[in-house]
Specification:
alpha/beta; six-stranded mixed beta sheet
Length: 327
């Protein structure tokens, strides 16, 4: 069975790689056949790196094909470059887009941008990260505080309600990371047998996160690890594999990537909590078009969270979630 699952993952990853290569070599083929000169949507992402944001972009491009609008995409290479992303957002206002879809790196820093956008009557759709420092037309994303609480509950179930748990946060986690960690900390109170023994941040490099986890495990006995994004989850799983502790120490992570799915199949982690970035990108552009046309849109679109395990990762609905290119 493992060989069969491994071959399926390999085939899907090959398909995704081939699609992305084709997109890079023949970008014109990815444009709508009749691009309307009317509506222009600006999509500002948190970073240009990573499968997650590539999937958001793919969803946005699917909306472009369906609705025939102009889409401009921009993103800093460094997820922690709040100033760079804010500068890009402010500059985008000068191009007079009909609406802006924003996956913000920070909340408070974007207050002047939101004020200026409102002054110019340009609707802003927040995706992935909830923004509270100013008015947005809508928020599309997961409830990250609730996701943190659910992560703790899943960990408690894995440990039978008893054990020492560590958090591996990420230094550039911004709004989402803070909400997830707060949800975890608040949920701990529900389990008398669970103790939070450590919380350490790490960078966006897998190897650094692996070293961080190694330090946590050297300092104390740990029964479970909660990792809050792709990089921390990969780093934690790699360290558990190095120590041959993948089944002894439970690991619940966030997000997905080809590397994480391979590690999940190897039982180096027990669960991934993921949302649908493809749908987020699509809905972000769709609602931006509606807002630009003066239509009423929902002020919040809650993206469901899915709990991916080695047992259910090959279910059809989860394959579409994890490999959106095959939709």
């Amino acid at each position: 069975m493992a060989m069969k699952k491994g071959s399926i993952i390999s085939w899907l990853l090959f398909f995704v790689a081939a699609y992305l290569l084709y997109s890079a070599l023949y970008p014109d083929e990815q444009q709508p056949k009749q691009e309307q000169a009317g509506k222009t949507i600006q999509l500002i992402l948190r970073t240009s790196k990573g499968d997650y944001w590539q999937n958001v972009t793919m969803g946005a491009q699917a909306a472009v094909k369906e609705f025939g609008i102009n889409l401009h995409v921009s993103a800093p290479t460094d997820e922690g470059d709040v100033e760079g992303q804010l500068q890009t957002a402010m500059q985008s206002l000068e191009t007079k887009p009909d609406a802006i879809v924003l996956g913000a790196n920070d909340d408070a820093a974007f207050e002047p941008f939101l004020k200026e956008a409102a002054k110019r009557h340009i609707p802003v759709i927040a995706i992935d990260s909830l923004i509270t420092s100013g008015a947005t037309a809508s928020y599309i994303g997961m409830d990250n505080y609730l996701a943190g609480k659910e992560a703790m509950r899943e960990m408690a179930a894995q440990l039978g309600g008893k054990g020492a748990v560590a958090i591996v946060a990420y230094t550039k986690g911004g709004i989402n990371g803070k909400l997830r960690e707060q949800g975890i900390r608040d949920a701990v109170a529900e389990y008398k047998g669970i103790r939070l023994v450590d919380s350490q941040p790490c960078s966006d490099e897998y190897s650094i996160c692996q070293q961080t986890v190694s330090g946590i495990l050297d300092r104390q006995k740990v029964d479970g690890i909660l990792s809050l994004n792709t990089e921390t989850s990969i780093g934690a799983a790699l360290e558990l594999r190095r120590r041959l502790a993948g089944e002894k120490i439970k690991l619940v992570g966030f997000d997905s990537s080809p590397e994480l799915l391979e590690l999940l199949q190897e039982n180096q982690l027990q669960m991934l909590i993921v949302q649908n970035p493809f749908s987020m990108g699509y809905l972000g552009v769709k609602h931006a078009i509606d807002a630009a046309q003066g239509q009423q849109i929902p002020n919040r679109v809650e993206m469901s969270m899915e709990f991916i395990t080695e047992e259910n990762m090959f279910w059809l609905k989860n394959q579409k979630l994890l490999f959106p290119v095959v939709q």
